[in-house]
Amino acid sequence: YVLVEYSRKGLFQGSVIVAVLILSRLSCYFIDKQYDYYRRPWAYSSDPNKPLLVGKWKGAFTDPDQIDHSVWIEIFEPTTAEERMKRFAHNRVHTDHSSPTYFEGLALMESQGRRDSFELWGGLKKRDGHELHFQMRPLKDKHPPGFNLNECRGNWNGDAIDLNLTYSWFRPDGSSFYNSADPRFSAEGKMVMGRVK
Asked: pLDDT band at residue 34, thresholds of 50, 70 and 90?
């Protein structure tokens, strides 16, 4: 009887310890998520109707050679729910020390029947601000020949991103070239991107 009572007591204590560990991990997960609402209000919100910078966007621009380009970009969540859960499922929790203003994504550009894929990275001036900048580089191949986007700077406001553009010119072999005597090489452009819903 004493052994049975002892084993029940041990089983109960073990169950309590396991439950406490699980609850502490879950509470860390939710605290971390709440902290991200504060650190990255452009990426996370408890309000499902609040427009965020993360997501898909579409725009178009005309380069200095008067060639039209269509652009689609996707800005990723800094930490997905799955990644956050994995982080807190391990015995050792790794704290996220990355910049609260930095973002990454992908871009697709279409021009004259050609499609090119790019990786995208950039940031906001302030964690709770709207001034941003980003750049792109080809995912696999070299830069397409002609004028490519060098840097995009501007303002994000709700469902629109208003950008000022600078360009770099590339030869067919992928090397860049600049001619200070040609005004096209110092020309700037504009692009307004709208949210893709």
From this structure: confident
Amino acid making up residue 92? R
Contacts of 15 (CB under 8 A, 6+ apart): none
Neighbours of 170 (CB within 10 A): 18
- Contact assessment for residue 75 and residue 57, using Cβ atoms and an 8 Å cutoff: yes
Look up the pTM and report it. Answer: 0.78
Task: Pick the closest to residue 165 from 133, 124, 117, 122 (CA basis).
Answer: 133
Highest-confidence segment of 24-28, 31-35, 120-124: 120-124
Q: Single out the residue of 120, 102, 116, 87 nearest to residue 42, CA to CA.
A: 102
The rounded distance, in Å, linking the Cα atoms of 111 and 182 is 23
- Name the one residue in this structure whose structure tokens are 């020949």: 145
Q: How far apart are CA 149 and CA 167, in angstroms?
A: 5
What ranges in 76-139 are assigned the alpha helix state H? Answer: 81-89
